[in-house]
Write a structure and sequence with these properties.
- There is one protein chain.
- The protein is an alpha/beta fold and about 350 residues long.
- The chain has two domains: about 200 residues, Glycosidases (TIM Barrel); about 110 residues, Membrane-bound Lytic Murein Transglycosylase D, Chain A (Roll), CATH 3.10.350.
- About 30% of the residues lie in helices and about 25% in strands.
- The protein has eleven helices and 16 strands.
- It has an eight-stranded mixed β-barrel with strand order 2-3-5-6-7-8-10-11. Strands 14-15-16 form a three-stranded antiparallel sheet.
- Strand 14 and strand 15 form a beta hairpin.
- Helix 4 packs parallel to helix 5 and helix 10 packs across helix 11.
- The longest helix has 19 residues.
Length: about 350
């Protein structure tokens, strides 16, 4: 009789629905959302809003000195069209000291903004870090960010890392924005609930050219306090404006690239009617986005570009109007299919 009972218990466990081992929504109130960065280019947020999107997470920064060139224009336009806004930072720290530096940088970039949603840590490229180091760096970053901004925070992670890398202790302390594609419900993790669920990277939304990440969020994603993020005590010379004197041969796109901004933002700042028409000696107001990754050295005719997650040589060649072979030759790359996040590449400036 006892053997039979044990057998029945085993059979019940084996045939339990998959959802028993899933990470489920923290609330039944679901909001449709997207997350965006410079990859989407200029976004028509009026069309995005009309398509039914309610929340947009915007990449603001990466590492300790990279500001997404579309961060401010995405924030302003999303807010202007009544969308709820959140920010995320792509964390690259390899020590707890770097985690503090990057938390301070993130806070400085988004200071004086009024987000509606929890601030997100996107930590997914770990290099040679072990699990204990990853969790210490994550905890240090998140705690520092909370202190600096006085806002709640959230961890973005795929299901595998949420189950195998990020600790149960972190799961008890911070909520989860989980990523898993092609499923209705994300799988098992160290979290019982999700507040955000990124379910595809190939979503199509009116107002956005090409594809974008699609998300679902619960009402727990919203901040309790949506007042302005305070000025950071560690704030450096980020998000300031300066004047650039146009030189012979300059183009607006070349100036935008040099200062890590966009042609559209320069057009708006300077009230330029024709972006194809600027003159030597003309003053152009440009935003200084810190010591960001795309630095143009006009004297050498090269761009120093720092590789980001998702970059490929073919995409970079297309973006900078050059060839894969040219980039590989200049940088002594033997395997054109192998480049690393954080690697600095020299690329010819063809502006």
């Amino acid at each position: 009789m006892r053997v039979k009972s044990i057998f029945l218990i085993i059979m019940v466990i084996l045939f339990l629905p998959v959802s028993v081992f899933a990470t489920v929504a923290s609330s039944s109130n679901i909001y449709e959302g997207i997350d965006v960065s410079n990859w989407q280019g200029h976004i028509d947020y009026e069309a995005v809003k009309k398509s039914g999107i309610e929340i947009v997470y915007i990449k603001s920064s990466q590492g300790s000195n990279i500001i997404d060139p579309y961060f401010r224009i995405n924030y302003n336009n999303a807010k202007a069209n009544g969308l709820k806004v959140g920010f995320y930072h792509f964390l690259t720290a390899r020590t707890e000291i770097e985690a503090i530096q990057q938390a301070d940088f993130f806070a400085s970039v988004i200071s004086n903004t009024e987000p509606d949603c929890k601030l997100a840590m996107d930590f997914e490229v770990f290099g040679n870090l072990n699990i204990d180091e990853i969790n210490k760096i994550s905890s240090t970053f998140l705690e520092r960010l909370k202190q600096s901004t006085q806002k709640e925070v959230i961890i973005y992670s795929d299901t595998s890392n949420a189950r195998n890398v990020f600790s149960i202790e972190l799961a008890k302390e911070y909520p989860l924005w989980i990523a898993e594609y092609g499923v209705e419900v994300p799988g098992e993790s160290n979290w019982e609930f999700w507040e955000g669920f990124q379910y595809t990277s190939t979503g199509e939304v009116s107002g956005i050219r090409g594809v974008t990440d699609r998300d679902r969020f619960t009402d727990d994603i919203f901040l309790n306090d949506t007042t302005k993020i305070p000025e950071s005590g560690n704030k450096e010379n980020y998000n300031k404006d300066t004047k650039y004197i146009v030189q012979k041969g300059n183009t607006l796109s070349g100036i935008a690239l040099k200062y890590g901004t966009t042609v559209n933002e320069l057009v708006i700042l300077n009230k330029i009617n024709n972006p194809n028409l600027i003159f030597p000696g003309e003053e152009v107001i440009v935003p200084i986005n810190g010591n960001i990754n795309n630095e143009v050295a006009f004297s050498t005719g090269h761009i120093i570009y720092t590789v980001e997650a998702g970059d490929t040589l073919s995409e970079l060649a297309l973006r900078f109007k050059t060839t894969i072979d040219n980039i590989a030759k200049i940088n002594n790359i033997e395997d054109i299919n192998l480049i690393y996040v954080g690697e600095k590449l020299k690329i010819e400036n063809n502006e």
